[in-house]
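U., I forgot to send this yesterday:
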Amino acid sequence: MDQSNSFSNFFVGIQNDFRISTTHIAIYMALLQSRVERGFANPIQVFAKEVMPIAKVSSQRTYNKILHDLNDYGYIKYVISFKKNEGSKIYFTDNTD
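Result:
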């Protein structure tokens, strides 16, 4: 799935999803930007400290909650890393439900 499809499919998917807030959108868009910077890889490995400033999120707790939400809702697959020197893996899915 290319970048424009990820972007379009996400917005189609969230159109009628009352669970999605502006914070969810901001973090998802920051993740897409990180994906662009990594040559459209799927999955990407990211650290919160890389994504949070792009999404304008200052709380680690909010960041983690939103990633878990996006995972639970099927927009991404989030595989958390508990290693300080290894970023968490984010898989982009094709959710348009």
